[in-house]
Amino acid sequence: MDRLLTEIETRRDDLVALTQDLIRIPTLNPPGLHYRDICALVGDRLGARGWQVEMVRATGALGDSEKYPRWNVVCRLEGKRPGDCLHFNSHHDVVAVGDGWTRDPFGGEVAEGKVYGRGACDMKGGLATSIIAAEAFADLHPDFAGAIEISATADEESGGFGGVAYLAQQGFFDPARVQHVIIPEPLNKDRICLGHRGVWWAEIETKGRIAHGSMPFLGDCAVRHMGAVMDEMERTLFPLLAGKQTEMPVVPEGAKHSTLNINAIHGGEPVQDEDYTGLPSACVPDRCVLTIDRRFLIEEDIAEVKAEVTQMMERVRAARPDFRYEIRDLWEVQPTMTPEDAPIVQTVQDAVTQILGKSAEFVVSPGTYDQKHIDRIGRLKNCIAYGPGVLDLAHQPDEWIGVQDMVDSGQVMALALRRLLYP
After folding, report:
1. 66, exposed or middle or buried, with CB in 10 Å at 0-12, 13-18, 19+?
2. Which of 54, 117, 194, 267 could bond 288 through an S-S bridge, CB–CB 3.0 to 4.6 Å?
3. Are residues 60 and 186 in the same domain?
4. pLDDT tens digit string along 149-200?
5. Spatial contact of 202 and 373, defined as CB atoms under 8 Å apart
6. Domain region containing 297
7. Cα 33 from chain centre
8. Taking the model in full, what pTM does it have?
9. Bridge-partner residues for 365, per DSSP?
């Protein structure tokens, strides 16, 4: 058997232990806990093996504060001769635990070939796998060409602005510095994710006029206006989006269409604290705010996406006296998709075929991840997501990652390193 593949297998226990250590650091986002601790764990481990370690705080980035600093770590191992750099990027933050757990969310429990915990799948298992793969390759082929980089970055779960976006702005993903990127997101070990759909978040506010609740005819109810907006969405906008379909290999099937999620709606009197025991005041709501999450296709233009919502609002205004509204952009991301014939795609595809005995499926993610920043800010197109873990388990109670999946993906990553850096 190939010695490199055997080496990954012999490090199975180390891979599990490292995954457990990462899970046991509760890097919850929000608000952004223990970011420096997990960066130090990764940096100390690789630094002891001769890697250059750079701790990078995203000072001034969205979410960064003295109480919750946005820490990232970038580790680099230089080869013995000139060549390309292959960078593995994983986010270290995890979402809230939520209800329904039957195991300790930060215990890193191992049972029946699975490691359990918040972030096990998304994506501390992928981070651990990339570290083990890189260490094994470097130990067996110390005379490799080019460089290997591993980063653990902040805030992917909240847009990545304190993580990969900041690093890209600082030049860490300049194509002159890094030529290939693998993001070990949990897209299943037999899939290569080429990119993601676009996203536009916005707030829609309907405006009214406050008055006494016993005389609503003297006011103008913003919530009723918003009800008309939602009715128009159901009648015209949702059918319009359902009729759009992409050629991108988006999974699951429903995400091949344009989608819109109503993320939140707030109108009228604010919700009081839990210890408040009184009744609400009698007022006509003078404002109502709807937050929308619009996911769009590579075939769509962002200006068209926004115009569809504006046109919908104008239809409502034409039908309702005194209707006033405002649309506020929150953030937007363009779709991205790496070509199937890109070097990193073909390299990983060949490695998957060797390890799993079948070709990898090319997919596109329904939601965005940090490839958006590597592409748009870093101007680096040769980037994919590939890693262990079942995507459907992300953000779920009793989240887990399979040990064998990590070993298999680690072997794929190690082969990719050898094919790109040890020709």
Report:
1. exposed
2. 267
3. yes
4. 999 999 999 999 999 999 999 999 999 999 999 999 998 999 999 999 999 9
5. no
6. 198-333
7. 18
8. 0.91
9. 196
